[in-house]
Amino acid sequence: LKCMFLDCGGDPDMHTENKLHTEDPIVTRIESVILGIVASLSEDEVPVLVLPNRSSWANVGFDSAIGLQMSSGHTVTTIRSDCPSSVTKFAQILKLLSVIYRLVQSNSYATKRDIYYNNTQLFGSQRTVDNLVDDLSCMLKVPRRSLHVLATSKGLISGDLCYMEEDGTRIDCRSSSAAVAVSSNIGGIKNIVSSAKFVMIVEKDATFQRLLDEDFCTKLSPCIIITGKGVPDVNSRLMVRKLWDSLHIPTFALVDADPHGTNEPHMSGFNSHTFLAHSLTVPSVMWLGLLPSDLQRLRVPSDALIPLSKRDENKLHSLLTRPYIADQPEWQKEMELMQQSKVKAEIQSLAAIGSDFLTAIYLPNKLRYGGWI
Q1: Which of 157-166, 181-190, 273-282, 359-368 has the lowest mean pLDDT?
Q2: Is the peptide bond before 290 cis (omega within 30 degrees of 0)?
């Protein structure tokens, strides 16, 4: 433990003095955690770390201006340094704190992948690092970028949008033939220029590519489309929020009519990220489609529909019992309709009506006449 403390910043005798001259709140909060551990050791007590419990929906509330957020009376998880089941996690957290401390002090950045490969034996897997970074972001009550830890983006973006990266690179997303990879440093984006009328989040990469191939962003009206290729990564979600804050234009979601589509994180949020809801979600995002009610209204052929699996039914039941659903009666109605019909459908099911039905009829009519919730 002493070695871990020294790794976090040097001589423990000098640490309190250095703290007095520290202005960065992240450094101060990390120092507070370490000094708490040292204080426990000096009093012959077992050092522990306390983390907010991010996995329970009981800790989640809904605010119409923010979206999902962690309640003030949330439960916590205690990580003990003397317990066989948690001592490894205790060491992992201290190591990660030491890495973050150095990054912040030197004003440099590292990816989660870099952190994992620099100590694979301690962390064991990339997923462990991913979860720990979120834990520390929650514990220190700061956005993940403030920890100077970046994630590799998997999302794509296209449409009426230009902006500048932190290093001065100018990004133009207006090409009709290729999309641009979402930046790994959303916080560094500046000088955003766009005449887009709306942003559309597209769940599936295949649907995104279809819209791209048909030049959707210019044929209908100037717009921006973005995909996280299934479950979106944090950078894709941060980008959506960045556009919302900068452009103040409507944001729509185009997802499958299934339990996982209705749980699309841009719309409802992950409970594990509710402590960062203000930067990861757009509370007024509108569910454009595919709605369960669309399947009946459009008479989508039965052979294009898929029966709900037991896993789907359990997911749907879980969604309907979440605390924020009571504040979203239209969403609740659509989910109950899916529960009653016992079928789901992918966006591609609209091709059973017509090969160009999605882009030529469905989306134009939805956007023109207000067919969203």
Answers
A1: 273-282
A2: yes
Q: Which pairing describes strands 224-227 and 199-202: parallel, antiparallel, or unpaired?
A: parallel
Residues acting as catalytic residues:
117
Across the chain, which distance is largest between two alpha carbons, in Å?
Answer: 74
User: Which of 130, 150, 170 delimits the end of a domain?
Assistant: 150
pTM value is 0.67
Task: State whether 20 and 134 are in the same domain.
Answer: yes
264 pLDDT band (50/70/90 cuts)? Answer: low
Question: What is the model's pLDDT at position 59?
Answer: 54
115 with 189, same domain? no
Query: Which residues are CB-neighbours of 262 under 8 A, at least 6 positions away?
Result: 255, 268, 287, 316, 319, 331, 334, 335, 338
Tokens 């006449």, residue located: 369
Across the range 63-79, mean pLDDT stands at 60
Name 170's bridge partners.
Answer: 164
